[in-house]
Write a structure and sequence with these properties.
By secondary structure, the protein is an alpha/beta fold. The longest helix has 30 residues.
């Protein structure tokens, strides 16, 4: 299924240009071939189906552009979990994917591109068949003392008890649990669990945002114990790329660099390329850490790295990337032009050290 960079780019542009037509054709086709869907879902269901088709094709576009079937497979698993929570089964998703695939295969265009896009759909369907849906999964740790602490912390956030959530963390640190373990063994898995609870329709998006804001607030209460007045030997800039609004993960990375003795400049979320380049010139970091959570922003990341490489040689500024897409595809960092990737802040520090020695 491998494609050249040029062919992958052409396929992505083809989807951009024809996305609306393909989405509507696939939705009409599945509705015509499955008349019972009209009774089950109604006209509003068909509208939502069209929205899903657009979203599936956008995810396909980014996976093709990155030449990464793994990204598309993980997205399909995510979609299946979401649909199962809405009492829409895996069979319905497979029927709809088949409709999208045959629409892509028969749509007017270049045969090699159409066939390649169709093959992504086919292998995606096979992936779902070979990896059946499993309910009851949890991100929370199972070993003590972090298991009990994580559950209690999450329960208090879901009950909107922000102060109690904070008290639990401060008390745990006072009793000897390291801040590093709090970040990696409590904040990180709890935030993943919060996302899963939203995905499976057990909490609202408002509650999800409340939990994220609470964790960011609790993290700020730990800052006096993280940041020091000394001048570290090494510096890192940590940020999310333009358009990417998820920042809590890269914020944790920046804090763990501080705990490891680095000086960090955390720029926040959705920082434009010009802002990141200006910060590099001013701060003179030894490593640049960039984060992407949504595959839609991989294109922005690749463009940013190309711009940075025209100004700063690789040996002068190694780039470390992270975020969900890089956890899903272990070789993706190579294809975006970075020097390494890391699944969490602890690993990021170790990889950064390797890059500057």
């Amino acid at each position: 299924m491998d494609m050249t960079y040029e062919c992958a780019t052409l396929a992505a542009h083809y989807l951009d240009k024809n996305l609306e037509t393909i989405a509507k054709s696939a939705t009409d086709k599945v509705w015509n071939n499955n008349p019972e869907w009209d009774a089950r879902f109604g006209e509003s269901g068909k509208d939502r189906c069209l929205e899903d088709a657009r979203y599936h094709l956008l995810q396909l576009r980014e996976s093709v552009r990155a030449n990464s079937p793994a990204l598309f497979h993980h997205y399909l698993e995510w979609s299946r979990t979401l649909l199962e929570s809405l009492k829409i089964g895996s069979k319905d998703l497979d029927v709809f994917l088949e409709s999208i695939g045959t629409t892509l295969q028969g749509h007017e265009g270049q045969n090699d591109i159409n066939l390649h896009l169709h093959s992504f759909i086919v292998t995606g369907r096979h992936h779902l068949t070979e990896n059946p849906y499993q309910a009851g999964f949890s991100f929370l740790p199972k070993e003590e003392p972090l298991a009990t602490l994580s559950h209690n912390y999450l329960d208090n956030m879901l009950a909107l008890r922000r102060k109690e959530s904070c008290r639990l963390i401060l008390e745990a640190v006072k009793n000897g649990i390291t801040i590093r373990d709090i970040y990696l063994g409590v904040f990180q898995p709890v935030q993943h669990e919060v996302g899963l609870l939203w995905q499976t329709n057990r909490i609202s998006v408002a509650t999800e945002h409340y939990c994220t804001a609470t964790t960011q607030w609790v993290m700020s209460q730990l800052y006096p114990m993280i940041f020091s007045d000394t001048t570290p030997e090494h510096r890192v800039i940590a940020t999310s790329v333009g358009g990417e609004l998820h920042e809590i993960g890269i914020r944790m990375v920046a804090d763990l660099f501080e705990l490891a003795g680095w000086e960090s400049m955390f720029l926040g979320a959705s920082v434009p390329a010009e802002g990141i380049i200006a910060a590099i010139k001013e701060f003179q970091p030894h490593v640049l850490a960039l984060s992407v959570t949504l595959p839609f922003h991989l294109s922005i990341l690749m463009e940013l790295i190309e711009k940075i490489r025209t100004l700063f040689p690789e040996e002068k500024l190694p780039i470390l990337v992270g975020g969900l897409p890089f956890n899903q595809d272990g070789n993706l960092w190579k294809r975006v032009g970075a020097q390494a990737s890391a699944p969490d802040g602890d690993t990021a520090v170790r990889e950064a050290v390797k890059l500057i020695v």
